[in-house]
Amino acid sequence: MDFPVNEDLVSGLxxxxxxxxIVEFKQGIESIEMGGLRWVYILDKxxxxxxxxADSKGITTETLRSRLDIIRHTFIQQxxxxxxxxxxxWTGNVEVYRPFENVIDEYYTQWKQAEKxxxxxxxxxxxxxxQQMLNLLINVIEGRxxxxxxxxxxxxxxxxxxxxxxxxxxxxxxxxxxxxxxIGINVIGINPMNCDMLVVEKEIINLIRxxxxxxxxxxxxxxxxxxxxxxxxxxxxISNFSLLTDLNLFIFLIKLFLLR
Length: 260
Known about the structure:
It is a single chain. The chain is mostly helical. It folds into two domains: 92 residues, no CATH class; 142 residues. Helices cover 63% and strands 10% of the residues. It has eleven helices and five strands; from the N terminus they run H-E-E-E-H-H-H-H-H-E-E-H-H-H-H-H. Strand 1 and strand 2 form a beta hairpin. Helix 7 packs across helix 8 and helix 9 runs antiparallel to helix 11. 16% of the residues are buried.
């Protein structure tokens, strides 16, 4: 991670802070939050080297420490695999170890790719839930509503205006959300590698909200509530309670379908 600060000053400050806690409290600092970042420390007693890493607060202390420990182990294997080989090596010249930055960068790239894969997997789970909810809404329209054609026209107009909106111009991948009367609404075609996942989630949620509100307005609240129950929409929400709760969506969606 690149920081717009003097590395030597930060290293000196954090080393002094760690040494102070050792003297005063008989133990070093394991982690702190400072400057909007999470910092972790590992003291290698054999070489008397203090390893320090920082990342955003979004990463857990345990994950950051485990990554730092891999870097510590690799550095020692490369430069100080025995006490004797390290003894007397340190002269204050960090340029000798500058090539090790490439090793750190390679690890960092691998970890970020792994994080993205995890996020993409979670994103597809979320997309799957949204797709099924939209399928259930289409089932309600197709099988029960007297004003089916009018509702479909509303959705078509909605998509036409949406495709020309500023948010789609700024996020072209949102154009992958499509609607056809014979097929329904498709959100699975979105490529998560080409979009801001949070923006996509927000827009799909807004789409579900607008369609649901249009159904209530055209068909009436009580008939729609009956259709939602018959189509097992509430059962589906409850079966995905955990994920929807993590996304802070469960209460919102229950209210959307249940209340006027």
